[in-house]
Amino acid sequence: MTGRVLVALTGASGTIYGVRVVQRLAEHKIPCDVVLSNAGRKVLAIEHGLTSDVESWLDDYDAPDCRVWALDEITAPAASGSTAPQAMVIIPCSMGTVGRLAAGLSSNLIERAADVMIKERRPLVIVPRETPFSSLHLANLLSLSEWGVRVVPAMPGFYAQPQTVEDMIAFVVDRALSAAGLELPLRQRWRGGDLPESDPS
User: Fold this and answer.
1) Tens digits of per-residue pLDDT, 137-170?
2) CATH code, 164
3) pTM of the model
4) In 76-180, alpha helices (H)
């Protein structure tokens, strides 16, 4: 896959998923664009003590090609179908964002870029982080799925026997990037094999 990937972080819990996606792209030298919602910035600080200074997320990476855009920068390349990114991942994706996308609203760069991805039929992945889902949430998610959006809930798998929270984060990050069409190596993969013996008691 060639081209840029747009990563958006909104105000749901789990903004660390978005940080790790940006770092994973930088690790594999995949150019990316990043945009954070105002609520996403606040959640990032509250949950992880991190700033929205994306460059600080990438201190351990060799000159990654990463551009950061303001939420109101509707003249950014991602806002036009003629210069749309190759793929877009909204991680985490709040239910407010889901609802606005399902309604076709585009009042900021995240929503406009997502609208572009849908109309241009390019890969758009959303990683919703909410529990429990209401019927309205599920209806909105179904609408987006029917329009070709890939819905990858933040549900880590346990078959790889994760040992740390970072292992569980990596699982969700890898699945989201795979759904976006990026052929990166999965760090945790189902290997099959026999099930463990059950306790007869």
Assistant:
1) 999 999 999 999 999 999 998 988 899 999 999 9
2) 3.40.50.1950
3) 0.91
4) 95-102, 109-119, 135-146, 165-179
